[in-house]
Amino acid sequence: MNLRFPGDVGNRTEREVVNMISIAVCDDEVVECCRLARKIKESLEQMNIMCTIRQFCNGRELLQAPESFDIIFLDIIMDDFDGMKTAQKFRDRACDNILVFVSSSREYVFEAYDVEAFHYLLKPVDDKKLGNILRKAVHKSESRSQDYIIASWERQKKKLFLDGIYYFEAKGRILDVHGADGIFTYYGQIGEMEDKLREKGFFRCHKSFLANLRYVNSYNRQELMLDNGERIAIAKRRYEAFCQEILRFMRESGGIV
User: Each residue of 13-28: b (16+ CB within 10 Å) or e?
Assistant: First the structure.
């Protein structure tokens, strides 16, 4: 398992990898899906922005993808599982992906607000408008924290942004990473992860749990309640240190004045 922070990257090749934008295009019309993916790639190349683009033919396939995406282009009218249902599933997971709807109809513009859509594009997609939206979406994506870990498990590697991780759970030599995209499991030591994330807003509240303080909604002497409704234990001997750390974190992150 590797931990990479943008400030630690020393050469141009690695810096480009860190700043690469990950995009998903979902449309049940294969030709339309390919055409939009090509337009997106060409537009980003003109802006000298590296990207990876994956294409999906339906919402279920997109939701089951193991990787996460910075920006998702979603066709609304699709058979079986439409774009609006797909977007709602992402929001139910507390995912903060940038969602851009693409449709031949204006009918669903107001529904898009319910799932916090970034923009609504009408088909056929205008190249200039697409470029403007991509520029704004990339800027929004890059303004977020870009710190991440790369976790490996059975030939699968996954980039996990720290902002999207709720907590780590240790099970012997195995770590479960609970986050916006579900649970990812890999071999690791929670003590090593605690040391690496000590100044990144994480706190070891229990021998088995390393919590992201930004997601702590409330707490008592027995447990922490997270924004997503989950509860994790806090050790009695760690409670006082936790209280000091959460207050410090809130002051530094602007959560308390």
Answer: eeeeebbebbbbbbbb
Closest alpha carbon to 23 in 1, 4, 45: 45
Tally of helices (H runs) and strands (E runs) in the chain: 8, 16
Give this prediction's pTM.
Answer: 0.55
CB atoms within 10 A of CB 7: 8
Q: Do residues 229 and 217 make contact, with C-beta atoms less than 8 angstroms apart?
A: no
CA distances from residue 193 to 148, 189, 198, 212, 240 in whole angstroms, order as listed: 12, 7, 8, 12, 21
Kindly report, residue by residue over 200-252, the tens digit of the pLDDT: 899 999 999 999 998 998 999 999 999 889 999 999 999 999 999 998 888 77
Q: Are 127 and 100 in contact (CB under 8 A)?
A: no
> Which 8-state DSSP code applies to residue 198?
T
